[in-house]
Amino acid sequence: MKYLLLLALLAGLFFVLGVRRGRPGEPEARRSPPPAPPAPPQAMLRCAECGMHLPADEALPGRGGVFCGATHRASFEARQGQA
Ligand SMILES: [Zn+2]
Fold first, then answer.
1. Given a cut of 80, is residue 48 above it in pLDDT?
2. Is 15 among the domain residues?
3. For residue 2, how far is its CA from the centre of ligand 1 (angstroms)?
């Protein structure tokens, strides 16, 4: 009779542990994965010619600032040269 009690106790212990870990037999992958963290905000730069905001990796560096395109850089630098 002692062994039966011990067995019941162990069964209860395993049941509790199983419940805590999730349903027994369920693979870990089936649980929904945590949502991916959002992409970090990208630095926005301002075109020195027209004032348009553009992401840093699209900005064209030049004398006097960054530009949205080669034409704006050229016109800005031409104006700087005149002054
Ligand atoms: Zn521009």
1. yes
2. no
3. 86
